[in-house]
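Hi U.,

Before I forget, here's the chain from the pilot set. I'm dumping it here mostly so it's searchable later in email.
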Amino acid sequence: MILVTGSSGALGGLILDRLAGHDVVAGTRSPDRGQRLVDFDRPETLVDGFEGVDVLVFVSAGFADDDVVLARHGAVVDAATAAGVRHVVYTSLVGSGDGLTIALAHRWTEARLAAAPFAVTVLRNGLYAEIPASMVPAAAESGVFAAPWGDGRMAVVAREDLADVAAKVALDSAAHAGRTYELEGVEAFGGQDVADLLTTTLDRPITYRPLPLAAAWEAPGPRFQVGHGVSLSANVLAGRLDLHPGDLETLLDAPPRDARQVIATKA
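Structure:
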């Protein structure tokens, strides 16, 4: 049996959809009929939630401060060990993102998994095309795509491609045991690239306005989220997130989805 954590989230839900028709169950903090209670913030739910699970698709629960994420992920590893899970497939962060603040929790989790008694496959997911796409509505309204990216670019991948890979690996887990895959996007976008794409999509001029990095601290949201956003922009500025070789194309059964379309659909 396969269990997918975070099945009510965007990535977990897509993975679950792709596993429909197989021996799979959803793990969520708010289960419906046929789903299992799996709440990373309530470790007492995890051992029972993982009972009878052969392959655990462990979708990172990173939307929190690092101490919270480490506690959540550590509890998952402990519970998977206690429940006798055979194989864990973990959705991590691409290696080129080591300079990002979100990398700390991922690398810590990878180390905990490597020391556990079960087989592990690490899917180092690239940055979602949905990241620049989330900035499109404001640009479409104002006519200006404003971002503190300078001349840097960000390699991005469609979330659906990452779900395809996760499902494929989960269904043939033994063939991927002990492997770490770098799921880099095959397209990169800078601020001017996004502005040019929106100009074409909307058939009206959209201008790119580079912002100072300090402007990223003014974004709304929890402090940890704002800090991660600043880190992302700083890495784009430094050229750390541009295109790098990866394993995405070798693991997909079709060419990667066009990240341009993911971005343009938000216009």
